[in-house]
Amino acid sequence: MSFISYLINGISLGSLYALIALGYTMVYGIAKMLNFAHGDIIMVGGFSIFIVSTTLGLPPLLGILAAVVICTALGMTIEKIAYKPLRKAASPLAVLITAIGVSYLLQNVALLIFGANTKLFTSVVTVPPVTMGEGQITISGETIATIVVSIIIMICLMLFIKKSKAGQAMLAVSEDKGAAELMGINVNATISLTFAIGSALAAIAGALLCSAYPTLTPYTGAMPGIKAFVAAVFGGIGSIPGAFIGGILLGVIENLSKAYISSQMADAIVFGVLILVLLVKPTGILGKKINEKV
Amino acid sequence: MAMLEIKDLEVHYGVIKAIKGISFEVNQGEVIALIGANGAGKTTILHTVTGLINGTAGKITFNDTDITKMPAHKIVSLGMAHVPEGRRVFSQLTVLQNLKMGAYTRKDKKEIEDTLQMVYKRFPRLEERKNQVAGTLSGGEQQMLAMGRALMSHPKIILMDEPSMGLSPIFVEEIFSIIRDISASGTTVLLVEQNAKKALSIANRAYVLETGKIALEGNADLLMNNESVKKAYLGE
Fold first, then answer.
1. What pTM does this model have?
2. Do B97 and A187 make contact, defined as CB atoms within 8 angstroms?
């Protein structure tokens, strides 16, 4: 029985990674850059909810809404100020290093404003827990909410890309910015929209992360951000279902390692599995190799 | 009044001046060829006209609209399509998705469908392969797709960059006969080609480019018989 509860907890943690990884993979897939500040946008989302719901005492839903609005605006602003001017830079490293810089900037600004003390976060999830197997397994409301929300968001994203005009424009931009421009697609606006969606997802991930693990510091987003990046690479970066599968697998491996092998070794095992996967399949589980015929 | 007018255009790549003050015009209904050796600046001119890069001096006017500083995605809806060098089809999308991408700026579904049928009629092969991923097409088929995709925007003028490059002789014939058809149906064509003989055979007028400058210009049949053109570009 305990195996099942470990598994469910793993899936829950994995769904969280998946949600964050979706943001990573969207931005990578379309703008072809790794936004290392993605995890810190989660932290900003967490603090937004904390201020609105805990400090001001407004309803949690309003807090989530505020977080989505603030993170979306922040993501688009970061893209415009920090990444866009570097889009034509000679080396792709320029924008990568900038992203790391933005990550530290966000952490330190949060440190200045909120201090280093851990804040207690009140859960925004109102889903009741479910008890199964004659009371031996209890699944928390946060777990249920995280899993359901991640699945819904993944499906919506896939439908959006497949069915909407803006989604098709994203596909075109991801493959060839110049050719997309020649089709009449506004490439800058498309990339901006990608960042907006990715950051909105980060806000939701922030709400769920801080509800499941109810503490908040300026570094809250850093480790989940890195894990989610690993999840995205694991599943095949650029692929939406890949990010989801990678996230779930990562969460499950991490939780089962903690339960059965060693809680100190869990992260080492997670990263070890990543290295193994990349040795066997460098593009990740669902990543595809682009075959070009001339 | 010219449909497309380029006046004193200069383009720099960093400190290197690639286009050194070029003026030319394209009139409604014409087929104009820009010919010249590798590095003469043919592609640069097309990229500047469609807004992919910005010139450093000069003026570009299209149907009385100044498009010198206009971004590429806005120029498309004025009625200018560009078939880029190397075709640049979206290799992971299907043929049909590629064609629909060409109609990105258009709203009327019925009109888009009509244009699609017109493109299929002109390129039956594209209809046969509409659900195939574009990356798996042959070079000639990709060229047809790139041309079909450009036609989907229902352009007044179509700019083609090296449409015959890397194609087998049979496909080269086919592509040029299609360009002739496109022109006959009323679309103006600005053609950049290394295959000068072929280009001159379908063009009304032509401009010969040499290292960023226009060396010669005139009616295509006159240029075809010009001794220096013959020597340098026609291999005679």
1. 0.90
2. no
